[in-house]
Design brief:
homodimer; L-amino peptidase D-ALA esterase/amidase; 11 helices; globular
Chain lengths: 411, 411
């Protein structure tokens, strides 16, 4: 059961001027499944992306990076069922062939097409099936196609993830709509976290390039379900430029508004993945502050977030402080003074100091911890008391169902 | 159920000249439980240790390090029930008080006593109970007390872990006996991996200091159950010096024999912990070769060993190559050429090439992988093909029982 995550309501998803989306059943791996999504972008659109750091980088990711570096994109093509990863040169050829087919269908250059795949790895993409499905996806293209598209990119997600925001910039109403998929950082064979966020604002390419990195850092790169990183992870930020004047000054109020909206929406989309994490029953925020730099804050937050012992304790609603302290201690920050740091548990408006001076806080009573642990959304706040840097990481707990899902996955 | 691990047979555990062991029920945390172990060493004994890297280093570990640096040890005192970790200055005072009490009982200096604790953390050690138990432990001291002692240091291990080896060096018969405890790298509250290895050989202190590090590196520091590191982990190598002439030349045949025996026994003791890992159904060896250096081999081996996706696949006996390749890919070796590496699965004398050239091996058939995965002990061999370094890490799979044990632990 996803943690406080509802399916999107079609009427509440807002069209982004310059973006049309269509889906089709292409039988990539299974019949009767919406497994092909086409996104068409108006001329003049700009995009920027961040991709997996995995050395087994999938073929579509390689092609996507190369195309993004070549020209402005006019279309995205996304298939589920087969990830086209661990497929060598044939995989790259297949990804390029898919782009050529989309280009021909839409009358654009092949380099203006960005390919994405998610599904089983080590299997070749059936390009012929994908190509055969394109006319139906093209025929389905529409401005309010986000609802269908967010279903079209799902694999084993239990819920589609899509949301919109709207904001006034001067006399213009600017829209932001995004969708994501993924239920583990890697969904074993049906791999991959995918995130797409489009706005009709006109944003200069250098700002867009910078913003996609910052937003990814604060959202998709700050979540973890199981510490595994997919071969296909991609996050694409699109600005179609259909509304308002070009935003090209990083210090401008306009850009700060756009920046805030993009980060907030990216965080919503990223957290939705954690809420729908494999077997998740709780959303945990690990907020580390008072660090020397952001890196050490992230290092400690991730050590806590990845600890199977912490995650199983949260599943059991057990305020097991020892496991949290031990994870902080082995995070690898070697000059950390554990006698100075403090740890709080917080939920539902209540915050309790649980650890200080190298041990349990004098004021702490187990009942307070137990009360907090009953909530579905819990924050672990850690003050390192040695600087001004901070970082937050989101994760979910570790349940029987996680093992069940991953042990049964291929059977 | 431990993986291919049998309880020790009392008759097969060999006394080490100069070592006497005794246990008692001290009611440290629970009644009617053998929770106090005393080890007395003959005068002239030498010891060397390696300890947890966790910043929340437990009080006994701090005292132990300090005493080892001060004088040669004459006694070890080990309690279960309370780990005396996360206990601040009072914890250190309690550990020192325990040493003083042992010293008084045995007529030795307090600095010649090494204290060890394992059990719940964030709770203070009841020194009075420990002290009250000492006369009984002293009265029970005997040369063939290893069998009782390996039971005495257990917490939630399902089996005690103790073994002996004997070898001829010149005209002398040298004995090595060791014991260990631990069922996760951290056993949540009942924390800690402890390992003790004693020989009656006479080994010069510099060689002993070096050997304890090498042996730990190749054994206790090459295992993982869940990636968590305890606050109390300790491994102590003791040479009582009762048999033969002093071994002080690293290049000598004598030292090479001792070295081989110590490493082999330490590996047996370390692997016993993995075999008895929480919920373990399989022992996995991840052997990485062809690396530029040992560090990158370990980095990749640990990435595979820590991946919950790989571990759940092994639990399911599923030869899920994609998960192994993905873990290699995200291990953080940034210039790794995934098209050059090869991966094999091996068990029971059979070895199958499963991946090469960035994907599934052409010769690989799923039936062969499935056959290997049915075994209880499986090796994943990875050739990075870029150098001569190698490293092996041992771990176990990830089962429903792991979650059950850790979610239920405190209830």
């Amino acid at each position: 059961m996803p943690v406080n995550l509802q399916p999107p309501i079609a009427d509440q998803l807002l069209a982004v001027e310059g973006v049309r989306l269509g889906t089709a059943e292409a039988a990539i791996r299974k019949l009767n499944r919406r497994d092909l999504t086409l996104i068409e972008l108006a001329e003049g659109s700009r995009a920027a992306g961040v991709f997996t750091q995995n050395r087994f980088c999938a073929a579509p990711v390689q092609v996507c990076k190369s195309h993004l570096a070549t020209t402005s994109p006019r279309a995205l093509v996304i298939n589920t069922g087969v990830a086209n990863a661990g497929t060598g040169e044939q995989g790259v050829a297949n990804a390029k062939a898919s782009c050529r087919a989309v280009a021909k269908e839409l009358g654009i250059a092949a380099e203006a097409v960005l390919p994405f795949s998610t599904g089983v790895i080590l299997e070749h993409l059936p390009v012929d099936k994908l190509v055969a499905g394109l006319p139906a996806a093209k025929a389905a293209l529409k401005a309010d196609g986000w609802y269908e598209a967010c279903h079209g990119i799902m694999t084993t997600d239990t819920l589609p993830k899509c949301a919109s925001r709207q904001v006034s910039i001067g006399r213009h109403t600017v829209t932001f709509t995004g969708m994501s998929k993924g239920a583990g950082m890697i969904r074993p064979n049906m791999a991959t976290m995918l995130g797409y966020l489009a706005t009709d604002a006109k944003i200069a390419q250098p700002l867009l390039d910078k913003l996609v990195r910052e937003a990814a850092d604060l959202s998709f790169n700050s979540i973890t379900v199981d510490g595994d990183t997919s071969t296909n992870d991609s996050f694409i930020l699109i600005a179609t430029g259909q509304v308002g004047a070009e935003i090209d000054d990083e210090a401008s109020r306009e850009f700060q508004i756009v920046r805030g909206e993009v980060i907030a929406l990216a965080q919503w989309l990223a957290q939705a993945i954690v809420r729908d994490g494999e077997g998740a029953t709780k959303l945990m925020s690990i907020a580390v502050e008072g660090g020397k730099d952001r890196d050490e804050c992230r290092q400690i937050a991730y050590a806590v977030a990845h600890s199977p012992l912490v995650k199983t304790a949260f599943f059991a609603s057990d305020p097991n402080l020892g496991r949290i302290l031990a994870a902080i201690g082995y995070a690898g920050v070697n000059d950390l003074d554990v006698n100075k740091l403090r740890v709080w548990l917080a939920a539902d408006g209540e915050e309790v100091l649980v650890a200080e001076q190298g041990g349990r806080a004098v004021s702490y009573v187990e009942e307070a911890g137990a009360r907090i642990m009953k909530n579905a959304e819990i924050t672990i706040r850690i003050d390192l008391a040695r600087g001004g840097a901070e970082a937050t990481v989101w994760t979910c707990d570790f349940s029987y169902d996680y093992v069940k899902i991953n042990a049964d996955y291929r059977s």
